[in-house]
């Protein structure tokens, strides 16, 4: 890795630390803040759909743009615009306001998410990719460890508005880091944007379609954690967790994730992606049953420690497998489509889980998430083919 790429990787790390911190500060209180404005759980599920619509509309576009323009400018735009959105959250009080904010935030962050993933795929070395990627993510996790704890504690002491303002302010650091980046991928085919794009037929391989299906279903887990888990922990008689305790739970997940990611990267290099994807997805699903059959804060924190291992294992192994099978010169397009699979999964999962939670009860929604992840683990064994290469 050249000096320019090494420098760019460090600055990209700062950008992701910024994003991780911003999201972490509001993660334990966002759903609770919205719930406190009088919205039902079903309406919160619909807000998740509004958020996914932003990703759905703009991530494919940003994927195409990312193969043709300076990605750092896409990151700067996204961080600057999202700062305004975060600052506007404390003033919202109706479902329409929250829907517009959710759609706006995901729309502008689409340009950042695809650009960051694309740059990462281009900069990371192919040799021992799992090891390097694991250490990279480990540093990001360390930087975001304190964020949920801070957000939960501050909201409990001084109110919900301050964490949103903190998220807005920290965006300035990410903008500065992005502007200092020098690396930019140069297309190897032709000199114009049209010439630079390979034939579309080289993209839709069986391994690529397989990982898209797996990522789509995995969104049931991510949607449940973001939109419904804080509400369940706060309102369930098994836990009655405060904002600070929910923040501590999310912090424990991040504390355990940091060292886990280093070990998981080495494990992926040794055993391959399929075993790690299938086992981690299945174990995440089974771990949610602890929310049904256990109670109290200590078991909750133990669950956080377990998920601190399983969650990064699933995300890392899926992403590394994607890097292994993506065709040359199409990183932006591939990351845009991969992100689109997340959007489709989120649009299915969010209203479905909201309806199940509201009508059939919280316990049924947990069983639904567990069932979806068990099915996904089986599909992972069938669809993730080791050594398939870039067809």
Percent range of helical residues:
over 70%
Determine Rg (CA atoms, Å). Answer: 20 Å
Q: Helix/strand-derived class?
A: mainly alpha
Number of strands: 0
Shape: globular
- Estimate the mean pLDDT confidence: 85
* Order of secondary-structure elements: HHHHHHHHHHHHHHHH
Please identify, by name, the CATH architecture: Up-down Bundle
Which features does this protein show?
391 residues, mainly alpha, Growth Hormone, Chain: A, 16 helices
List the SSEs and their pairings.
Blueprint: H1 3-26, H2 30-36, H3 41-66, H4 71-88, H5 95-123, H6 129-143, H7 146-158, H8 161-179, H9 193-196, H10 206-235, H11 243-271, H12 273-287, H13 290-293, H14 297-325, H15 331-360, H16 362-383
Helix pairs in contact: 1-5, 1-6, 1-7, 1-8, 2-10, 3-5, 3-10, 3-15, 4-5, 4-8, 5-15, 6-11, 7-11, 10-14, 10-15, 10-16, 11-12, 11-14, 12-14, 12-16, 15-16
Structure report:
There is one protein chain. The protein is mostly helical. It has one domain: MFS general substrate transporter like domains (Growth Hormone, Chain: A, Up-down Bundle). Helices cover 80% and strands 0% of the residues. The protein is built from 16 helices and no strands. α6 runs antiparallel to α11 and α12 packs antiparallel against α14. The longest helix is centred in the middle third of the chain and has 30 residues. The protein is globular, with a radius of gyration of 20 Å. It starts with a helix and ends in an 8-residue tail after the last helix.
């Amino acid at each position: 890795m050249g000096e320019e790429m090494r420098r760019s990787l460090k600055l990209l790390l700062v950008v992701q630390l910024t994003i991780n911190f911003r999201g972490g500060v509001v993660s334990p209180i966002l759903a609770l803040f919205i719930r406190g404005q009088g919205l039902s759980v079903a309406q919160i599920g619909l807000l998740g759909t509004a958020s996914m619509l932003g990703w759905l509309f703009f991530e494919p576009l940003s994927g195409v743009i990312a193969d043709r323009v300076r990605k750092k400018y896409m990151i700067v735009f996204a961080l600057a615009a999202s700062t305004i959105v975060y600052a506007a959250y404390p003033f919202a009080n109706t479902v329409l306001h929250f829907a517009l904010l959710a759609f706006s935030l995901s729309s502008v962050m689409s340009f950042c998410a695809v650009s960051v993933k694309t740059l990462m795929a281009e900069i990371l070395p192919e040799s021992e990719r799992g090891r390097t990627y694991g250490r990279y993510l480990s540093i990001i996790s360390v930087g975001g460890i304190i964020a949920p704890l801070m957000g939960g504690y501050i909201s409990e002491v001084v109110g919900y508005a301050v964490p949103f303002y903190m998220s807005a302010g920290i965006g300035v650091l990410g903008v500065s880091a992005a502007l200092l980046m020098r690396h930019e991928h140069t297309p190897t085919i032709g000199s114009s944007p049209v010439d630079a794009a390979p034939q579309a037929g080289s993209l839709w391989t069986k391994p690529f379609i397989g990982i898209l299906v797996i990522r789509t279903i995995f969104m049931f887990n991510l949607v449940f954690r973001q939109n419904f888990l804080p509400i369940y922990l706060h309102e369930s008689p098994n836990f009655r967790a405060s904002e600070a305790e929910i923040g501590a739970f999310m912090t424990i997940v991040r504390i355990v994730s940091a060292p886990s990611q280093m070990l998981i990267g080495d494990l992926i290099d040794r055993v391959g992606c399929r075993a790690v994807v299938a086992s981690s997805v299945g174990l995440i699903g089974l771990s949610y049953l602890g929310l049904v059959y256990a109670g109290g804060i200590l078991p909750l924190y133990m669950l956080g420690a377990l998920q601190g291992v399983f969650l990064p294992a699933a995300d890392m192994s899926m992403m590394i497998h994607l890097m292994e099978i993506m065709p040359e010169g199409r990183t932006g397009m591939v990351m845009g489509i991969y992100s689109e699979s997340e959007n489709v999964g989120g649009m299915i999962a969010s209203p479905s889980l909201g309806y199940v939670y509201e009508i059939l009860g919280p316990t049924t929604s947990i069983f639904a998430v567990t069932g979806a992840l068990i099915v996904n683990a089986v599909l992972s064994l069938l669809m993730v083919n080791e050594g398939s290469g870039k067809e």
